[in-house]
Amino acid sequence: MSWLTQGQVPLEAYLVVSGLLFLIGVVGVLVRRNAIVIFMCIELMLNAANLAIVAFADQLQQTDGQVFVFFVMAVAAAEVGIGLALIVNVFRARQTVYVDEVNLLKG
Amino acid sequence: MYDFVYLLYLIPLLPLLGLALNLAFGGRWGHRGVSLVACGSVAAAFIVAAGAALGLATLPEGERRIVQHLWTWFTAGSFHAEVSILFDPLSAVMCLVVTFVGFLIHLYSTGYMHGDAGYRRYFIYLNLFTFSMLTLVLADNFLFMFVGWEGVGLCSYLLIGFWYERHSAADAAKKAFIVNRIGDFGFLLGMFLIVATLGTLDYGEVFRLAPVKWAAGGGIATAVALLLFLGATGKSAQIPLYVWLPDAMEGPTPVSALIHAATMVTAGVYMVARSHVLYELAPVALGVVAVVGALTAIFAATIGLVQTDIKRVLAYSTVSQLGYMFLACGVGAYTAGIFHLVTHAFFKALLFLGAGSVIHALSGEQDLRRMGGLKKHLPWTHGTMLVACLAIAGIPPFAGFFSKDAILAAAFESRWPWLYAVGLVTAGLTAFYMFRLLYLTFYGQERLTHEAKHHLHESPRSMVGPLAVLAAFSALVGFLDLPIVPGGDQFGAFLAPVFADLGPVREMATHAATAVIPGAGAAAAHEAHEAHTPVGLEIALMLVSVIAAVAGILVARALYLRKPGAAESLATRFQRAYRALLHKYWVDELYQAIVVRPLERVSQWLWRVFDVQVIDGVVDGTGGFVVLGGTLLRLFQNGYVGTYAFFLVVGVVLVLLGLGGR
User: Fold this and answer.
1) Could you say which residues from 17 to 56 on chain A have a Cβ atom under 8 Å away from some Cβ of chain B?
2) What's B88's DSSP letter?
3) Which of helix, strand or coil describes residue B103?
4) In degrees, to the nearest 5, what angle opens at C-alpha B226 toward C-alphas B317 and B222?
5) Rounded to whole angstroms, how far apart are CA atoms B654 and B644?
6) What CA dihedral angle connects B222, B223, B225 and B228, to 10 degrees?
7) Which residues contact B114 (CB under 8 A, 6 or more apart)?
8) What was the pLDDT predicted at B502?
9) What is the pTM for the complete model shown?
10) Cβ atoms within 10 A of the Cβ of B380, count?
11) DSSP E strands: which ranges in B223-352?
């Protein structure tokens, strides 16, 4: 834990946190039934990616990564808008937001 | 007159125009308009043809060969298919016969077909036929001729099956079409062989190159000549492909007269005469033509002896007479063959139209056993039929005598005198069965059914008129080619330029034959040089053939006029022979057994085994595979978002692992 004393957070630490966040997001998407929670988990995955990207940008001393993150956040915002609207409509039609109760679209 | 030559293309075009007009507007014009256009177009074609023929006659003998190039059909490599017209004495004669007899039959049809529901369709077919036939005789190469050749085959099919709601008519039409396909197959192969060896199908080129490039009497020449002759046996109803013609009598009677007596069935004779250079190069093939012709002549004549359907008697008579024409070509007497073609066109068309008039008067009765005594009811029909019978029997001075005598004389001088004997016997048989028909129809007791008696009447003027004209020609056309009389052979002199190349070609064939068989060459040379028969012999031959004809007539008179029961007692006495003739030697049954049945069995096998199991198996298998794949894949599409997400993640992980593994 030398970085605690040296005041310099190493890249590995960022990546570990990012990886953990991403994993939590993936597991959440896979195991949770509530559409809103799944949605939040997706956001978590996106932000995990964001974290990794800014970490790399800092490491390489280039601004490309920072710019990229802004784009990701803009896309995520738009996605939230559409996604929540979808969930609201699903609820209106089916009186539920649990994804295992919404399975009309099947082969 | 020569100017008409520039209008040659109009000869086939006019009937086509008539057909187009009737097709487009005939529905509005009614019977009168339709018949006016149909007859008018053929009459106009006749006028152009007559003018052009007269123009041709004004030319010096060596130049009587006019080629009018219209356009190039297609080009493939060095091969050109041209649409061009050849007008020489041979095609002129054919054109005149087709348009003149065709016009008379069109005219007759306006009366015969009056009130038929398919009146317009009938005349459209008839004009299409005239167009195709004129294309056939005017074409300047084998390929363009083949277009007409197939065209007349199609029209024959359409017109035999004109009353297609009748099952027998539809069957007969199919039979004619299929049997002709066999012949056309040979014709096509012959053409392919010509293209493969000479690289062209143009008449002039082929006949110029063939003697140079082919060995006289060699394999290629023989093969080409025989294959083309196979086509001729189909179209002109010779052994072994004659079986369709008697059945073709299911068509309307004027059609039988036009297509199945006067014009289309003579196309094979025309083709052989046109390709005489090829046949002279192949003496073996020429021999086959002569033998097949002679055998067909006597074979069909014997069947004709006992048939009871008036049209069938005439059909077998046509087969027999076509045999005569091939016999003439086979012994090298092309002019005699074409002359018989012309005279036959007149008297056989007349016979058919007369028979049509009888059938018309008797409300559709065709059985000779239920006719008799019609002479007083149908005087015009009787008179014209009598002329036709005398003509076909070969009684001088009617047309058939001259043409038949020319053929018999040529056969007598050929390598095989037995051909003459066959021809002579056939002449006697011909006279017998024609007068049997005449006596059974017009003389003796009336044996009419009540229904036939009901509408008994002489035919309308539109039908009797053509009969009278044809009777005049049947009586007089023989004088075009008088034997013995110096300068009497106008017809032969007119055709002479067409066959002018016979001498040199025969010379070559003779040399080739001498090299192989010493004796044959001498015989052929003898044949080639001694074109003129001594007058005494010629008169003797004439006397013999007239005696044969008169004998035939007298026998018919004795059996069917004097003693009405005599024929039956003869039939019971020689029952086996009688049954064989009545059943046409069981040839149809034989073909049924050796060709049709096996073919049906093969087809059945192809259907039940190959089609149902193999082909359907492949098609069904494809469908089954897709269904199975779908059944498996739909298990993944269960509608739960979670499942999709799971597979997504699994997929990503696998991809990442794959990338990492590299």
Assistant:
1) 26, 29-30, 33, 38
2) S
3) helix
4) 140
5) 15
6) 170
7) B31, B460
8) 82
9) 0.80
10) 18
11) none
**A39-77 in b/e burial notation, b at 16+ Cβ within 10 A?**
bebbebbbbbbbbbbbbbbeeeeeeebeebbeeeeeebe
Torsion, CA B179, CA B185, CA B187, CA B190, rounded to 10: -150
**Which segments of B489-574 does DSSP mark as H helices, in order?**
490-495, 502-516, 518-529, 535-557, 566-573
Q: What is the DSSP string of B282-297?
A: -HHHHHHHHHHHHHHH
Q: Which residues contact A39 (CB under 8 A, 6 or more apart)?
A: A80, A83, A84, A87
A77 in reach of chain B (CB within 8 A): no
Using an 8 Å Cβ cutoff, are B224 and B282 in contact? yes
Interface test with A, best of B640, B652, B653, B656 (most A CBs within 10 A): B640
Nearest to A106 among B639, B642, B645 (CB): B639
For position B415, what pLDDT does the model report?
A: 82
Given this model, what pLDDT does residue B533 score?
A: 65
Residues in chain B predicted with pLDDT less than 70, given as ranges, are 1, 512-533, 661-662
The answer to whether the CB of B392 falls within 8 A of the CB of B322 is: no
The residue count for chain A: 107
And the tokens for B366?
Answer: 């065709």
CB B143 within 8 A of CB B75: no
Cβ count near B210 (within 10 Å): 23
Could you tell me the two tokens for B36?
């006016």
- Find tokens 């090829």 and name the residue: B278
- Identify the DSSP state of B460: P
Residue B333 three-state SS = coil
Residue A15: burial class (beta carbons within 10 Å; 0-12, 13-18, 19+):
middle
d(CA B405, CA B10): 36
Distance from the Cα of B185 to chain A's closest Cα (Å) equals 57
- B350: which residues sit within 8 A by CB, 6+ positions away? B384, B385, B387, B388, B391, B467, B470, B471, B474
Q: What is the ipTM of this complex?
A: 0.81
| Residues from chain B contacting residue A33 (CB–CB below 8 Å) | 642
With CB atoms and an 8 Å threshold, state whether A99 touches B640: yes
Q: Which chain B residues have a beta carbon less than 8 Å from that of A100?
A: 640, 642
- Show the CA angle centred on residue B529, arms to residues B525 and B533, nearest 5°: 125
**Does an H or E element contain B76, and which?**
strand B66-76
Task: Write out residues in chain A with pLDDT < 50, as ranges.
Answer: none
Smallest Cα–Cα separation from A86: which of A73, A99, A100, A71? A99
> Taking every pair of C-alpha atoms in chain A, what is the biggest distance, in angstroms?
59
Distance from CA of A65 to the nearest CA of B (A): 22
The predicted structure's pLDDT at residue B27: 85
H/E stretch holding B15 reads helix B10-58
Contacts of B425 (CB under 8 A, 6+ apart): B298, B548
Residue A1 is encoded by which pair of tokens?
């834990």
From the list A30, A104, A106, the residue facing B642 with the nearest CB is: A30
Question: In 3D, which of B356, B339, B325, B324 has the Cα closest to residue B430?
Answer: B324
Rounded CA-CA distance B639/B634 in Å is 10
Of B471, B405, B426, B428, the C-alpha closest to B321 is B426
- C-alpha distances (whole Å) from B154 to each of B35, B132, B237, B243, B266 are 22, 9, 16, 17, 16
- Look at A103 and B636 and tell me if their CB atoms are within 8 Å: no
* Gap between the Cα atoms of B64 and B86, Å rounded: 10
Q: Do A103 and B638 touch (CB under 8 A)?
A: yes
Contacts of B626 by beta carbon, 8 Å cutoff, 6+ apart: none
